[in-house]
User: Fold this.
Amino acid sequence: MKDGVDEVLELVMLAGEILLKNGAETYRVEDTVERIGLAAGMRQVEAFATPTGIVVTLEHPLGFARTKVRRIRERGISLNKVAAVNEVSRQMVNGKLSAAQAAFELSKIQQNSNAYPPWVHLVAAGIGSGCFAYLFGSNLKEFFLAVVAGLVIHWFRLKAAGWGFNRLFGSFLGGLIAAATGVLGQLSLLEVTADKVIIGAIMTLVPGLAITHAVRDVIYEDLLSGVSRGVEAVLVSVAVAAGVSLVLGLWLGVG
Assistant:
């Protein structure tokens, strides 16, 4: 008999996929998958996750095993979905949800859109950029320029993602916009220096979560995931710096 093993395998793969797509740490993905699989009645669960894929093997109490691999091609950040999957896992471990009920709840989580509409993200990016500029000593004009730059950067990043461009291109484009806004502001307005506007605008592009996850994965000895996330953070930082450098290089060269 092979009762339920395929269904449980699909259940744990769905949980792992949602977590990886929405910014969960590698150890959290593996731990959640193992807990759900054991709660569903499997004798042993082995999970191996990286930022771009997950491999899961389930061993049924009757002795046979199943293995499945899933490639993760789209990644973002939605800690609301991560928390929701964790809650489903807890309820299943505590016996409050069956495997079928957990699968239904995970399907709803996967289909739900982001907790906030796009305009909220845009406003948050703009205000965040302005506040970072203020922390670095900007005046009121530089603050508002940084707000505008943050709004435009985030809007273009959303559009670039919709057009199929990867994160590195979006980061490069963000650096271009930040530097161009700062340079144009200094050329056209009094009491405006480009550096504070640029610094404030690019702070929302800094891959802080990737760096945090890289360090945490290394601490938990998930070396493959830690190194790959660290390399990703470095490449994003280089892309932002390249966009800023291009604009500043042209400006200083012409000047």
